[in-house]
Write a structure and sequence with these properties.
With about 300 residues, the protein is α+β, with helices and mostly antiparallel strands. About 15% of the residues lie in helices and about 25% in strands.
Length: about 300
């Protein structure tokens, strides 16, 4: 069974756009279609309809050259070559999976592996807000895969981790700027390290481009804490927690598929992560930024969100 477009509800949300200094220049009211999966009497999972379309995945060569020079790192070349990808309609979690959602599904019938019901490092309320609204963290790729398997088994829908192409398409939501907010970002809009810091003897800035520095919260924040979504209605895509994707890691996009399918490789131990985290600087939280972690590793900077295949 797959979700049908004629059985969807709708919700309204705000999309904020900023200029290259991080100042708000536009605020629009939008509407998106979604369905809500009832996981328990008090816990639901909102899945937003992502329309089909095409986009240019990756980062332009000129921008990559600039990033490599600015930050003295070559890993930005992982984001090339830029290539066009066509994506079918699908559903994506409005937010990363929360600790409450994880706890419910972890109690369901096991498919392959066991799940710890409360694995997260962050266990305290945030500014008086229930800790169970924090994104689940400390999750391995195999844990996330088991979560999707249990969710699919219980609901009879096809849930899985998004492919890297699906994730970037959903994150950009029609934008071509480094962030779906625009040319830069602020800690009023997302959860990342907004202060300068030192790593391996080099100072990394807490701002991006001409944007201003901000705060460093040093932990995850409740999902939806920041009121601005992207144009598809998704939240918490920049910073917060790295999100697992279904793909094996490749060092670049050479020979990448143009149909949004997951890429497999000789070493399936390394899996793609996207979005940056609360711990990282803004340049690592861009729409095109990508990284990898071994599939069995668990860290307090890594979570995930799910996608669901749509009916045709």
């Amino acid at each position: 069974m797959r979700p049908r477009s004629d059985r969807l509800s709708s919700f309204e949300f705000q999309v904020i756009t900023v200029n290259d200094k991080g100042e708000e220049i536009r605020r629009e009211q939008r509407e998106a279609k979604y369905y809500s999966e009832n996981l328990s009497n008090s816990v639901t999972l909102d899945m937003v309809a992502i329309p089909a379309g095409s986009f240019w995945m990756g980062t332009e060569d000129r921008e990559i050259k600039k990033l490599c020079q600015t930050y003295e790192k070559d890993w930005f070349r992982w984001e090339s070559p830029q290539h066009e990808v066509t994506v079918p309609t699908f559903f994506m979690g409005r937010y990363p999976i929360t600790q409450a959602q994880w706890r419910v599904v972890a109690g369901w019938e096991q498919v392959e592996g066991k799940l710890e019901p409360d694995p997260s490092y962050f266990k305290k309320p945030y500014q008086g807000i229930d800790r169970w609204t924090l994104p689940v963290d400390n999750i391995s790729w195999d844990d996330a895969k088991e979560f999707c398997a249990r969710l699919s088994n219980k609901t009879k829908k096809e849930y899985r981790l998004p492919t890297e192409a699906e994730w970037e398409y959903a994150c950009r939501a029609g934008t071509t700027t480094p962030f779906h907010f625009g040319e830069t970002i602020s800690t009023d809009l997302a959860n990342y390290r907004g202060t300068d810091g030192e790593f391996e003897g080099k100072i990394y800035p807490g701002n991006y481009g001409k944007g201003l520095k901000g705060v460093y919260r040093e932990q995850t924040t409740p999902v939806g804490y920041f009121k601005s979504a992207n144009a598809f209605g998704l939240c918490d895509l920049h910073g917060q927690v790295w999100e697992w994707c279904g793909d094996d890691w490749h060092n670049n996009y050479d020979n990448a598929p143009n149909d949004s399918s997951a890429r497999e490789g000789e070493n399936s131990n390394k899996k793609v992560i996207r979005g940056g985290s609360w711990y990282l600087y803004p340049y690592e939280c861009r729409s095109g930024s990508r990284g990898y972690i071994s599939r069995d590793k668990r860290f307090d900077v890594i979570g995930f969100r799910v996608m669901c295949v749509a009916s045709h």
